[in-house]
Amino acid sequence: MRTKNKTIGYLVPVFMLSVFMLIIYGAYVPHKAAETQRIVCIKFKAGTTSEEMEKEMRDFAVLKNNVKDVVAYSAGRVQKSDGNKSEYDVIHYLTFRTDEAAKQYASNAYRNDFVKSNESHWDKVLEMNSDIEK
Length: 134
Prior knowledge:
By secondary structure, the chain is α+β, with helices and mostly antiparallel strands. Helix content is 43%, strand content 25%. The protein is built from 4 helices and 4 strands.
């Protein structure tokens, strides 16, 4: 019985040290930098309710989970400045790991379903890709 307790006494610290080393390794392994950002600006049709706008923003946020190589996503409403009416209502930012993933985004099945279900509320849409300067 004493040998079993001694063995467990040695294995527990070794196991804990191994877990700690794996965590540190994961934190410091260099990851491939993102290459491309896509900006999607949307202007809603007059009469679109704020609930419909919020639903669109939630649906777009879920969409990012179904698109390959999305590194980051954020969105927000366009801020009105100096009382001028803005050309767009919301902006979505998608950051992709590779240029190829950004190109595949346009033909993604989840994206196409999202567009079909929401385009009836959109007046105009502007989508642009840009390189990320390092």
